[in-house]
Sequence to fold (465 residues):
Amino acid sequence: MPKAPSSAAQPTSSGVVEHAGGFNRKIFRATAVLTAVSSLVLVASTAKELAVASYFGRSDALDAFLIAYVLPAFVVNIVAGSFNAAVIPTYIEVCETEGREAAQRLFSGAMTWSLGLLGALSVLLAALAPYYLPLLGSRFSASKLLLTRHLLYVLLPLVVMSALTVNWTAVLNAGEKFALPAALPALTPLTALGFLVALGRAWGIYALAVGTVIGTALQASGLAWTARAHGVRLTPHWYGLDARLRQLIGQYAPMVAGALLMGTTDLVDQSMAAMLERGSVSALNYARKIVSVLLVVGAIPLGTVSLPYFSEMVVKGDWDSCRHTLRTYAGLIALVTVPLTAGLVVFARPLVHIVFERGAFSARDTAVVGRVEALLALQIPFYVLASMGVRVVSALKRNALLMTFAAVSAVLNVVLNLLLMRRYGVAGIALSTSIVYLVSCTLVFGSLYLLIARPPARIPARDDA
Fold:
């Protein structure tokens, strides 16, 4: 196991800053590239959303699509998405200590395990759809529920296909390959947009569903080609449950549990929005699309890039660089996101008017979505900060802490939704979300202060630490 430097070997203050600066520059350059690429993906997603707003407004058909999509997306984000955060620290450690072939065996075994799990979950989602969809769409009519179920069956292939994209993206990111994996997601909204333009009038909401599935398949194909070009074996293979895979699963299980609890925020929010007036689910979705602009170009690139580098610092026991990098980027995040959030809150309604108000999207829709967006935007600084902080906790392999924080956030979200939606309707759900991310950010950085405020006696990166 790598050891933390002794006190005699500790670098000077200027040496620490210079060494940490190397990591800071790497993270900054990679984040800048990823932000630029993500912005292009965002343009494609925005074009699709404009088409969706023009075709469907806040209609029953779009409500049905969003409720049908929420559980497949939930499973992908929770089960497959947790794979990325769990596998990268262990993959990098195995590469450093045992070589690339050992890391490949670890990845192949983990991919086999995750694909089997997601395949089983897909079958389960299909079989239980008649039972849980009436709960998610509690105010939906019988015809609207039937449409929701049919759309769900169309969208279910996303679960396994998205698992492949997440697995291959994780191994490419671990090798510090960021740009192309970040660009390929543009294929999904562009394909969905193409289907809407070509078949939207004839197929209705099914054009959006089919386009989304085919776009994800194209994204997976592009990632497969990229991973193979970088020497990654794509065929899943089971080498047995060895010590390294048990270590990864030991980190993966609490990560999934934590993501499951935290991921219920979107699921609960949309389900509770369905209890309100017609179009509330769609209003929440439109507001999220605008807020996600800053999250896509801020939190997601920084979180994606920072995890491999923080994992490297942890493996090497470079705690001074870890603290310096964390402080530097926390300050930069606050400096950038606070004024941007203020602007988004002040100009929420005009922005919604400019972006969405055309076709079936009316001035009344603009008023509703504008209120929701203004309150939802308050989460941005806390979300971006927490996104980076969570990566440091994952690099430290303290994912059980994230599970605890997620449990607190999930309970708080339900309580705040119940209290605030009675007074403010769907806008109250947005305000609840922002408060939950404030609390989550406080918990994450409070734990990091305790974990890395002082150099630990040994690196907490292995099961025996």
